[in-house]
Amino acid sequence: MRSYKSLNNLVGWLVFALATVVFLMTLEPTASFWDCGEFIACSYKLLVPHPPGAPTFLLLGRLFSLLSFGDVTKVSVLVNSLSALSSSFTVLFLFWTITMLAKKLVLHRPGMHDDRQLEPTFGQTLLILGAGAVGALAYAFSDSFWFNAEEAEVYAMSSLCTAAVVWLMLKWENRADEADSDRWLVLIAYVIGLSIGVHLLNLLAIPALGFIYYYRRTQNPTMWGGIITLVVSSLIVGLILAGIIPGLPTLAGAFEVFFVNTIGLPFNWGIIIFLLLFVGLIWFGFRQSFQRRNRLLNTAMLSFVFILIGYSSYLIVPIRSSYHPTINENDPEDVLSFVSYLKREQYGDRPLLYGPQFNAQPTAQTEGAPRYVRQGDKYVVAEYRPVLEYRAEDKMLLPRLYSNDPLHLYNYKKWVDIQEGVKPTMGQNLAFLFKYQMGHMFWRYFMWNYVGREGDLQQSGILWGSADGNGLPERVADSPARNAFFALPLMLGLLGLFFHIRRDGRNAFIVGLLFLFTGLAIVLYLNQPPIEPRERDYTFAGATFAFAIWIGLGVLALAELLKSVLKADTTRAGVVTLAGLVVPGIMVTQGWNDHDRSDRYLSVDSAKNLLNSCAPNAILFTNGDNDTFPLWYAQEVEGVRTDVRVAVLSYLNTDWYIDQMKRRSYKSAPLPISMESKDYKQGTNDYLPYAENPAVQEVDVRQFMQLVEANSPLLQVSYGEGKPLLSFPSRKFYLPIDTAAVLKTGIIPADRRAQLVPRMEWTVGKSAIEKKSLVILDILATNNWKRPVYFSSTVDSRDFMGLQPYFQLEGMAYRILPARDPNYDPSGGRQADDGYVELDLMYEKLMKTFAYRGLDNPGIFYDENNLRFPANYRDKFSRLADALLMAGDKVRAKKVLDKAFEVMPDKAIPYDYYVPQFIPALVAVGDTKRANEIMDTMIGRAERGLAYYSTHNQALFDQEFQTYLLSLDSIGRAAEAIGDRARAERAIKLLQQYYNPRQ
Fold first, then answer.
1. Is the pLDDT of residue 470 over 90?
2. What pLDDT is stored for residue 865 in this prediction?
3. Around Cβ 734, how many Cβ atoms within 10 Å?
4. Sign of CA dihedral 300, 303, 305, 311
5. Same domain for 34 and 131?
6. Are residues 581 and 627 located together in one domain of the fold?
7. Among 132, 201, 212, 210, CA closest to 162
8. 875: closest CA among 832, 929, 934, 931?
9. Are residues 36 and 176 in the same domain?
10. Has residue 318 been placed in a domain?
11. Cα distances (Å, whole numbers) of residue 129 to 14, 87, 97, 453, 674
12. Its pTM surpasses 0.90
């Protein structure tokens, strides 16, 4: 018979293999939305992603990408598999963690001691291994963890780091009496150092590790000893978070500025002197440990050095940045910009322990920390970061209701009864903490994993019962993400928790501490606003990891309960193991269809379609992660349309990004930007307010840019004691057009030459022009129509600057042309109608060029975020069909309509807000049956959805509620347009039933 050790290893690897097979079978084959496209591109070419970066992840991703052997289409799946394998190893370490804790309980040896030599009986072994398998597999198939395993994001590897340090600490605990046991502590320090280059969540495991150390090294632990341990371990977390990660580079930067500016040494000598002193201090620390024969000091010094060795992966950031790669966010090529990168200064901060509440008005603005840049042979202050001062009575402890953003204020009111203009009470402040931040944003996510989930809509709640969807909106009832676990994982985990507390209080406390610090402590630290762009459940994977330990130990509790019924250890262990495996069995069967991404190509296809919408050598303005990161992946990894320069509007508000846009990138020449660095450096022309000058009725864009570059007094206005700002004197802009030269370029289609204008005129509706808008104006003034300029059709219309009359819709992008759209109706107010539809070009793009892989497959799960992009396709198909009908081309219009519903049928991509636009066109081509089916289906869904949401937490789902109302309005107007009075009346009556109470 095999020994316990060999069986423990064997079963652990079998659990690992099972998890690996599942994760690889359900793996996304390409770059999914959000940060994944960026991380895959940056891994493949070791580029610089958004702060604070993830260099350890990128280096490992680069190694995995080499296995593609030149086949760039395999890069994404290989980097995704890094997350899959990280998750599998997390499951493996969790298995061994559970078996180490379970062995203490089964052998009735609680606490901290070496039990390696104790050999359980076969029945005991089966029980221990069963506990490990149930707990590890329950975590493997939990909702958030499985989601993280399928894509190239940092959270899977972060979970691996947490699992590894917990397992290593328990390994040390079994070997603490050996002379060389401290090597395990040094290895833990190295893993922690590496984890800094992945994500900082791993650091929150340190307090739990501190208590393992304290209990193992102390014969008679006391309450005060525990308090000191908690304080010291928390200080270690703070030391790493503030002292090592940003602290050391900040100190190095201070040395650099002092020795260059004050002493007069060349650049980088301050860093060299700092490094020499720092290495000297480390040598002194080691020397003291040897002279005093102090083992604790020596171990602490070794751990510190190995944390630094792991942390050294961050050196890749300034090294790669100095080569000016194509993705180089924040340009952190020197120590000063590197510090800003590490501190994530571009994202701002949130008050945590003490700060202003949402009604607080700043009383003053003072100069904060300086931002230095190189100029000549010195560092000069580019700007002082502004610091707002508030009255003491406008501040409060633990401020949760802090944001004055109108959207945030609107959403605060969904959770607490506050009034604008009235300072919130501490009770209201804490109510938001407990109801929203802890209740909705932590406990709801936790219950998703171990109780059940209602669906994939944002704000979806907990599913306590079965998955039956009677009475629910179809979008919820039929969602593959509607997973019912019948609370079995939760109940088994609670059973394990109580059993653990009763049998081994100290180890139960350690697991509980891990749960609290990786769960509720994160809630306090994040101080989340009342609305997020997407669900944030991935943040709390550490807490679900800790609870999975108790799920495993719940198997031991079941065995204890059955002890009087089943006397034989082996029989009892087999029965409870099989019963326990029902839990992960239910989880994997319920979760498979919504976690299986094996045939999903939407994100990359949408990126390629957007790039292929553009003419050669184009400039494409985009906005937002899901707009941009798949484009970066397509260009950087697969080399698709590298002649198109993607310009991210939000980044164009920064000087470093404008600098990058003025450099060549692959086949794309530098952007035609005439402004020099002095005109757009941070702190200069960040925004230009509107200051009306009655003498100036309209503004010539070229003259305006010349005045901006000259910092002309004609544009300067003063506000208070600050330096004067440049402004714009009129909201009306114009750009003279050399029509003869434009005609020679051939950019105006033959059928639009009569629409060519000698002067483009438009109105900017903003009260201030941001730097990104200034760049757009500069390009219009400088480009002279040499390069095509586009906006992605998903860009917020507020960033169009009123240029819509000159948009031409080409595929998924709007091209700016000096030809006025005769059909443009500014009173329509709908972005969907922007852009002149150039028939032949649009037909070629939508019908022949674009890829729609998998959008016709009802077996592929597209969650809420994914479904936004097919909606854009439908809008463009509808626009093209309408334009063809207006041109009298009914044959091609019918082909377009057929194609739209062929590639995106309702069974795969449910009808959305844009579908009612098809109804008049369908009737016009003789497809009244489909038009009626659309109206009946959507009215029925709206009726069911409105009835449900009007009585079930409507405030949380107001977006869905409003979408149903807008759809009914569209259906009503479409039905009236085709003369279907019955359906029109039904839609309008239903609309009025639910619309009026919301007035």
1. no
2. 87
3. 17
4. negative
5. yes
6. no
7. 201
8. 832
9. yes
10. no
11. 11, 20, 11, 29, 69
12. yes
